[in-house]
Amino acid sequence: MKMRAAAVQYHLHTISSFDEFAAQAEHYVKTAQEFDTEFLLFPEFFTTQLLSIPDEQGKARGIESLPDYTQAYLDLFRNLASKSGMHIIAGTHVVRREGKLYNTAHLFYPDGRVASQEKIHITPTEVHEWNMARGDGLSVFETDKGTIALLTCYDIEFPEIVRMARAKGADIVFCPSCTDDRHGFHRVRYTCHARAIENQIYVVTTGTVGSLPTVDFMRGNFGQAAVISPNDVPFPPRGIVAEGEINDDMIIVADLDLDLLEQVRARGSVTTWRDRRTDLYTDWS
């Protein structure tokens, strides 16, 4: 079983209308479609670009206004997934539920279905500056190309949650991210590699690039997309199937062969998933 995945290094810049946001999203979708992409990943918090649209007083909006765009966001990506025939992981969007804000990843199926996964681990900035709430459950999602999980940015830094996703059957983790400097970027990137090695899975990750000068905590972005594999024959030695140019506006495309994962799990030079010492520590299955 193979799938072709693409990831968008989404360029954040000030816009004046939702239509501008929609046109930019459609541009990336059409670009990915030209490469026969089956799964397309957008970054975490890329919809914060909508906060740069001035309010009636000409000022940028606060994070509490982002859920006002939820229905338009859902309609846009449901339509793009249907027209393109792709599975689109449309980054994350902030939704409001029972008076609380959740940073939520969304998976849009070509047949119109929409699945979601709330971010489980919340950074101090999300807690103290944006008053975000934590998600409390982990799901995996069945597709006609395999089982996937959606774990957002900080989530990938916790090995337990990725173990749980793998135990539930996920072979690919899509990790939308948003980091504002090199330190944050490398924390996410290095732990993506660690999770791929530990669980013998693929990790597809990407981040925002550009800047939103009028939106608090989105003025700086440092991002790069990558498709990451286990570090074993027959994968690339560095475990990098594809990666973008740091901080450029672009997409990357790569083919993911799920049969190769089964091969290394069975007879790789290391068999990290099989060799877990579950007699000493928790078996998440």
TrEMBL record:
InterPro entries: C-N_Hydrolase (IPR003010), C-N_Hydrolase_sf (IPR036526), UPF0012_CS (IPR001110)
CN hydrolase domain ranges (all copies): 3-258
Gene3D superfamilies registered for this protein in UniProt: Carbon-nitrogen hydrolase (3.60.110.10)
Any Pfam family hit: CN_hydrolase
Segments passing through the bilayer: none
Recorded superkingdom: Bacteria
PROSITE patterns associated with the record: CN_HYDROLASE (PS50263), UPF0012 (PS01227)
Coiled-coil regions listed in the entry: none
Entry similarity comment: Belongs to the carbon-nitrogen hydrolase superfamily. NIT1/NIT2 family.
UniProt name for this protein: CN hydrolase domain-containing protein
